[in-house]
Amino acid sequence: MQASRARLFKEFKEVQREKVADPDIQLVCDDSNIFKWTALIKGPSETPFDGGIFQLAFSVPEQYPLQPPQVRFLTKIFHPNVHFKTGEICLDILKNAWSPAWTLQSVCRAIIALMAHPEPDSPLNCDSGNLLRAGDIRGYQSMARMYTRLAAMPKKG
Amino acid sequence: MQSEDEQVVDSSKAETTKTCTQTPEVDDWANFRDDDIMQQQSAIQAVEADKIPFVGDKEPLSSLAAEYKSGNPIILEKIKVLTEQYAAVRRTRGDGNCFFRSFMFAYLEHILESQDRAEVDRITASVEYCRKTLLSLGYAEFTFEDFFALFLEQLESVLSGPEASISHEELVERSRDQSVSDYVVMFFRFITSGEIRNRSEFYEPFIQGLTNTSVEQFCKSSVEPMGEESDHVHITAISDALGVAIRIVYLDRSCDDKGSVTVNHHDFSPVARDPTNANINNNSNNSQPIKPFINLLYRPGHYDILYPNN
């Protein structure tokens, strides 16, 4: 418990320092609980998520950093490796490939990379995965684009 | 038997990777999440933990023989041969960290008993070199410094200085305390990863032979995560990085053509290295291979600690 708190405090200070270096990620710690974080990440360019802002919720276990943080999308997203209802993310580093060398910040970077490079062969969202597996890139992109517009962009007017 | 226990853990690991794939046939899949799987996995691990602590008690080799009482005759024969050289065994939990855990305990116990201050000074310099290596590889210091600090703290505590060293019971207790034991295991994982990546051209062919992945991918998926089992690549790397010789004694069913039984061992002897720079001195004629003070027993899939006869 004490170890995880100390580590998170270091990450907090690092995040303040790195703010300018990584403008695509805005990582914020809950005011009253250092084990709860949220992040706003920019959808990567040249993907259907471009222009969208996606919110992630982090829940950090007491065993951190020996155990990974739990992360999920709060913003609806149409992506093969994100559960459409729960926002759960299928990413190896959040499961069995986790190591303390990762940080909350680098997890955000890995999630942005996953948005740009979906892995349709281990889908949490089968509809999305099947479009890609069937080679229907256009279908996938237009669905993903639609949900980006509906859920991840500020309402106009 | 150990191997069965490990299969339980292994199948739960396979389960975790499978969960990423949604099967349409399962109607209530939406309610069945990775968190549940991870909880189930940690429940299985908790059951394992009840069976054997991270580091067990010292047991006579006869306890090993008892395990194979109605088992393979070659193994029993080999245990007999083993007793000529070794007196006791100390088991470790089969959780994928057994090599690093065995190494941790055997090393700290050796320092506690030998009070070899020169060795402590030597390894401290090696650790400092490893710290610089990780920094030069681009690791953020705050991600690994806690693990380094905890290891150095253990090292200091087993050596009598102005304060008396900790007792042997205390060392056993700490090795069973997850908040110490897992941190030291993780420290070794950082050291091993740094060494492999720092000398990637040397390790690449071995890694290619094992997994057909890049050196970096291997370190990320098979060295740094807790619970990933160790192979000769890991052992070579940690031996070189820390400058500690390790003897691995093999207990398996192999025998020669005539059916006669010998127990093989392999010594991992660290390359001679000046801890102040990266150059490895390959033609150091003056360095005799040292007899390792760390003796580990390898049975396919698992490492325990061995104690030689005195």
TrEMBL record, chain A:
Keyword set for this entry?
ATP-binding, Nucleotide-binding, Peroxisome biogenesis, Transferase, Ubl conjugation pathway
- Ranges that cross the membrane: none
According to its UniProt record, the EC number is 2.3.2.23
Top-level taxonomic group:
Eukaryota
Which InterPro entries does the annotation name? Ub_conjugating_enzyme (IPR050113), UBC (IPR000608), UBQ-conjugating_AS (IPR023313), UBQ-conjugating_enzyme/RWD (IPR016135)
Listed SUPFAM superfamilies: UBC-like
Q: Name one GO molecular function term.
A: ATP binding
Q: Which GO terms describe its cellular component?
A: nucleus
Active-site residues from the entry: C90
Q: What class of enzyme is it?
A: transferase
- Which SMART domains does this one have? UBCc
Q: Does the keyword ATP-binding apply?
A: yes
Q: Does the keyword Transferase apply?
A: yes
Q: Which terms under GO biological process does the entry name?
A: peroxisome organization; protein polyubiquitination
Q: Which residues form the UBC core domain?
A: 3-153
Indicate the family of this protein.
Belongs to the ubiquitin-conjugating enzyme family.
Q: What is this protein called?
A: E2 ubiquitin-conjugating enzyme
Q: Organism, per UniProt?
A: Erythranthe guttata (Yellow monkey flower)
Automatic annotation (TrEMBL), chain B:
What are the boundaries of the region Disordered?
Answer: 1-31
Q: What is this protein called?
A: Ubiquitin thioesterase
Species name for this entry?
Erythranthe guttata (Yellow monkey flower)
Q: Which family does it belong to?
A: Belongs to the peptidase C65 family.
Name of the top EC class for this enzyme: hydrolase
The record's Pfam families line, in alphabetical order, gives: Peptidase_C65
What GO biological process terms are annotated to this protein in UniProt?
protein deubiquitination; proteolysis
* Residue ranges annotated for the OTU domain, each copy included: 87-309
Q: Which UniProt keywords apply?
A: Hydrolase, Protease, Thiol protease, Ubl conjugation pathway
InterPro entries tied to this protein: OTU_dom (IPR003323), Otubain (IPR016615), Papain-like_cys_pep_sf (IPR038765), Peptidase_C65_otubain (IPR019400), Peptidase_C65_otubain_sub1 (IPR042468), Peptidase_C65_otubain_sub2 (IPR042467)
Q: What is its EC number?
A: 3.4.19.12
Name the catalysed reactions. Answer: Thiol-dependent hydrolysis of ester, thioester, amide, peptide and isopeptide bonds formed by the C-terminal Gly of ubiquitin (a 76-residue protein attached to proteins as an intracellular targeting signal)
SUPFAM superfamilies assigned to the protein according to its UniProt record, in alphabetical order: Cysteine proteinases
A Gene Ontology molecular function term for this protein is: ubiquitin binding
- What does the record give as the active site? D95, C98, H302
User: Site described as Interacts with free ubiquitin, positions?
Assistant: Y250, D252, Y298, Y303
